[in-house]
Specification:
118 residues; flat; c-terminal domain of poly(a) binding protein; mainly alpha
């Protein structure tokens, strides 16, 4: 990856298009599950989303393999896709961007109140 691609995000665009092309050939129920995974996993993104690319690649690979093996989407993911995404992002209860922002806001407010109060 060259510097320009990193700065502009061109590498992410190429990778994203490749993911979408791979997902397009999945059976309909697997494609729907992939769309739901994308919707839930973005809450765990960093500023650029670069940290999600290996996670999405792994999830898509899992869906491709299990579809090829003839398994059902329910056998693979169960009923809790949101929990599956949390597990992919780190662990159950993994912090998402709202949690991080809330903690930062609380620290900033506490720091300001500490300065005002004492």
């Amino acid at each position: 990856m060259n510097f320009w691609d990193t700065i502009t995000g061109n590498d992410l665009n190429r990778e994203w298009k490749a993911f979408e092309a791979r997902a397009a050939v999945l059976p309909p129920d697997f494609r729907a599950a992939y769309e739901e995974i994308k919707g839930h996993i973005f809450g765990y993104s960093d500023f650029t989303g670069r940290n999600l690319m290996p996670i999405l690649d792994g999830a898509l690979g899992l869906l491709e393999e299990t579809a090829a093996d003839g398994q059902s989407i329910h056998d693979v993911l169960g009923d809790d896709i949101q929990g599956f995404c949390a597990a992919l992002a780190g662990e159950e209860g993994a912090r998402n961007f709202r949690d991080k922002w809330r903690e930062q806001l609380n620290r900033n407010v506490a720091r300001k109140l500490g300065r005002l109060g004492g």
